[in-house]
Amino acid sequence: MVLRAAKPVPSKDYYSITKYYGNTYIIADDDGGSQYIEEFSGKSQLLTKEKLYDGNKDGIIQFGNNGILDLGQPDASSHTIRFYDINPLKGLRYLGENGDGQYVYASAAVRPKGAIEGTVGQDSFTGRTNVADTFFFDGALDSGSGRDTIANFGSEDRIISTLPFSLDPFGSGDLVAEGDFGGSALSIVDTSGRVADGVTLLSTYQAHGLTYYVYKPTFTTGATAPDPEF
């Protein structure tokens, strides 16, 4: 039998942040003081009205020395959040602004090491020449990963997602994340200008309570991207 240590019971000075919907927690305008989130999983997201402090502006929000997230300056804020299911050394990753003007954050541990990831909005990426890039799309979040494009996709580049991808059955030509109500869609053009018309699943693995799907796109029709309009 494996014994697990019980989670510490928050003091009376802490009050809980409840889920707003799905796996989403929202910091309301009038929130303040000391709060805690008991279950912040790999699928969870935190929405805030103001951007969290990011000292080196790398998009990773690390916690204070006390292991608690300070919404202002580290170890100097009157508004703090304690997470019980997140590695404070990894912290949160910033995923941009949603359509409601809220800033979106999720566990930084979920993003594969070295992977390129955009925001919850519309992003455009360009694959690097002679470099095997990995592009990450976290469709398992309630916000989804937006409608994105990748140009110059190389033969050694890969896609990793937290939901299965397939060709849009409604004929948009995009690759879409199955079961993603946040709206994750992807258009890929390779180094020859061909547009991806499907994906091949290379492998899957489990981590952070999620299933990761590793893909390479297929270009069976040989169709090329249209010239841009001016």
Automatic annotation (TrEMBL):
Which organism does this sequence originate in?
Answer: Sphingomonas lenta
Name this protein carries in UniProt: Uncharacterized protein
